[in-house]
Amino acid sequence: MGSAKNKSSTARQARIAEMRRADQARERRNRILTIGVSAVIVAGLVVGGVVLVRSQSGDSDSTASDDKTSGKFVTGSDGVRTWEGTLSRTHVKTDVKYSMEPPVGGDHHQAWMNCNGDVYTKELNNVNAVHSLEHGAVWVTYTSKADKADVDKLAAKVKSTPYTLMSPNEDQSAPIMLTAWGHQRTVSGADDPNVGSFFEKYVQGEQTPEKGAACTGGLPQ
């Protein structure tokens, strides 16, 4: 009987030892699996962080891209220069090197300048003002060579006219210029009759790519 008990005890100990070895093997497999999953998660976080940083870097990139606009100005009998060709309308996150100043269209930022009769005393970012043109605004610009009286009169007209905006622009070729999407002209002063005719024709005119789009809710400057 003692022998039988010894055999039973030995078998039980063998089973216990086998179960312990199985448990230890299972624990090793679980540790390896956990380490592997953790490595994958960490790698994913690293890659995601790199992509996010690059994306954010691209959003704030100030490098100017070339305008994809192609064509040329053709001057009509009314003195208005009309762009004949393509005017790209892609939203971009960088500045744009426009082929004309002020630009009459082209790639632009997704945020527009408020153009509900807004008069700005500082120069605007073209990429934002061009978006206002896309909404049907007329943009009045002037240089330091323009008479102050003319600037004041034009400012009063802009303030009373929805879908217009006004700002200084020292890079343009004439003291006072009027710009709409795809159209532009020079005027001699605030009393030039061409000011009224340009406003009448191009404020929310047929040239507007996004007629009815808001001129409020954009950038105040």
TrEMBL record:
It comes from the Bacteria. Residues 1-12 have a biased composition (Polar residues). The chain crosses the membrane at residues 32-53. It holds the Pfam family DUF3105. Keywords: Membrane, Transmembrane, Transmembrane helix. Residues 1-25 are annotated as: Disordered. Residues 15-25 have a biased composition (Basic and acidic residues). InterPro entries: DUF3105. This is DUF3105 domain-containing protein. It comes from Streptomyces pharetrae CZA14.
